[in-house]
């Protein structure tokens, strides 16, 4: 089943399971559902719980391809010291050999359903085909144009190339896209994969390409348009800012925070309690209140705080030695460094420090640390405008999408433009096209694409050439142009 963006492929798959159980009297234990990533597994589990109930959905096996591979080889593989990484690399290949010797049917499974099939590697596709030969019925769902993991070895292999007697159907109607956005998605699609025709009856505004003279103006324009939508009582949860990389999103998040608009990155929520704790510590330093902090005191002010009392006080003593009362901006930054050092996990520490650093430039707007803490609490209570890389945005939709940083060097990314073998470069550019295709297909109403010259810190280059991925779209005039240069 090949499904265009917004066709409801995951919903169709969950309804198929419901039909099998309720209308065909198939036992839940006889159904195996596979997907590529843990995130899609969690989405499927949530939907099954909703339509089937927790008791029934618990009996349906919902797993990643890798977890099945690990089960198949678990009894035949011994992992030596330092061998876990090697085992993981060959795990799927070993599982294919084991799968060819499985009884039929395997574990009494009667139905195999695969979601997000386009993200599977050739070996994972071969494993699915081997399992399908031991399970009577198979349904594979995916969209070749939404394969975004070629860098990790993913490559779309039609299941009909691996199994005989496969029927291919297309879910071509999109419940999400307008005709205008669908036309743009098709115009930027990969040249190596012919996308399925997108049918829709929805109409909306024509997608726009906004040209600015520099990134600063682009940031101001996007922030202004987001604030304007919120002033028109649009829901912040219906707005998203997407980019190829996380780095390009940072100035947009900072600009919106300066305008008291909360933003959040998909899959990267950091509780405001951390920033509030840092603000409270800054308040104590400025007030020269160096009495030991107690968890009871912090719980009264900040709610439950999962920190060891002794570790907290050691940090506070270090704080009073290293930081002298002064401007709130400097004190808050110093408190953030001391506080984040309490956390062992590097990723957690980095995320908390990143979130705290977003507030540092805004400290000048507040008369006291208490006022800053109040602003942080107020910001946390708002519905966030979502910011995301295109990869993490796959499978989601918003009414208003701002796609920023669409310029040669960022989208397509600079390392896809380096001199290399023509075939290899075409593969890389095709992956960039699929990224742009996915990004344009996130908008259910308005899509605005932003382009401006960018000074790239990592390569120390200035990217200023129009994105080559938009050439066809501009020639076919599916994009309107707003030039503010």
Automatic annotation (TrEMBL):
Alphabetical UniProt keywords: ATP-binding, Coiled coil, Helicase, Hydrolase, Nucleotide-binding
UniProt-listed Pfam families: AAA_19, UvrD_C
Residue stretches in coiled coil: 295-322
Organism superkingdom: Bacteria
Record-annotated UvrD-like helicase C-terminal domain positions: 378-448
Gene3D superfamilies: P-loop containing nucleotide triphosphate hydrolases, PCRA, domain 4
GO molecular function, one term: ATP binding
InterPro entries assigned: DNA_helicase_UvrD-like_C (IPR014017), DNA_helicase_UvrD/REP (IPR000212), P-loop_NTPase (IPR027417)
Signal sequence segment: none
Name recorded for this polypeptide: DNA 3'-5' helicase II
Organism: Sphingobium lactosutens DS20
């Amino acid at each position: 089943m090949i499904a265009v963006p917004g066709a409801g492929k995951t919903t169709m798959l969950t309804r198929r399971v419901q039909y099998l159980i309720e209308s065909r009297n198939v036992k839940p234990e006889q159904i195996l559902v596979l997907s590529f990533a843990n995130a899609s597994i969690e989405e499927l589990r949530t939907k099954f719980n909703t339509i089937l109930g927790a008791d029934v959905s618990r009996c349906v096996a919902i797993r990643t391809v890798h977890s099945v591979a690990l089960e198949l080889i678990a009894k035949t593989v011994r992992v030596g010291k330092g061998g876990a990484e090697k085992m993981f690399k060959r795990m799927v290949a070993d599982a294919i050999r084991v799968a060819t010797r499985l009884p039929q049917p395997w574990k009494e499974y009667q139905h195999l359903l695969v979601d997000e099939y386009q993200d599977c590697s050739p070996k994972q596709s071969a494993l699915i085909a081997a399992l399908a030969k031991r399970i009577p019925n198979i349904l594979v769902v995916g969209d070749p144009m939404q394969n975004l993991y070629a860098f990790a070895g993913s490559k779309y292999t039609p299941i009909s190339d691996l199994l005989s007697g496969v029927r291919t159907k297309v879910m071509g109607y999109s419940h999400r896209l307008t005709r205008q956005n669908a036309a743009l998605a098709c115009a930027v699609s990969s040249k190596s994969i012919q996308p399925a025709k997108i049918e829709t009856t929805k109409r909306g505004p024509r997608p726009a390409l906004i040209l600015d003279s520099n990134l600063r103006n682009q940031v101001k324009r996007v922030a202004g348009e987001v604030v304007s939508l919120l002033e028109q009582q649009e829901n912040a949860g219906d707005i998203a800012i997407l980019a190829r990389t996380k780095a390009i999103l940072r100035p947009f998040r900072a600009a919106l925070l300066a305008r008291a608009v909360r933003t959040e990155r998909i899959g990267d929520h950091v509780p405001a309690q951390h920033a509030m704790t840092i603000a409270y510590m800054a308040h104590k330093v400025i007030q020269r209140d160096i009495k030991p902090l107690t968890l009871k005191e912090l719980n009264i002010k900040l709610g439950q705080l999962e920190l060891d009392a002794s570790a907290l006080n050691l940090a506070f003593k270090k704080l009073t030695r290293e930081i002298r009362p002064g401007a709130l901006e400097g004190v808050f930054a110093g408190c953030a460094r001391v506080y984040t050092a309490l956390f062992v996990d590097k990723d957690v520490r980095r995320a908390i420090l990143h979130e705290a650093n977003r507030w540092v430039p805004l400290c000048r707007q507040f008369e006291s640390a208490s006022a800053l803490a109040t602003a942080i609490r107020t910001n946390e209570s708002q519905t966030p405008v979502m910011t995301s890389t295109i990869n993490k945005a796959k499978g989601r939709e918003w009414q208003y999408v701002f796609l920023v940083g669409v310029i040669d060097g960022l989208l397509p990314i600079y390392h896809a433009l380096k001199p290399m073998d023509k075939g290899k470069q075409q593969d890389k550019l095709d992956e960039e096209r699929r990224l742009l295709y996915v990004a344009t297909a996130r908008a259910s109403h308005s899509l605005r694409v932003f382009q401006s010259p960018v000074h790239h810190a990592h390569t120390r280059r200035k990217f200023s050439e129009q994105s080559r991925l938009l050439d066809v779209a501009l020639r076919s005039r599916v994009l309107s142009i707003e030039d503010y240069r």
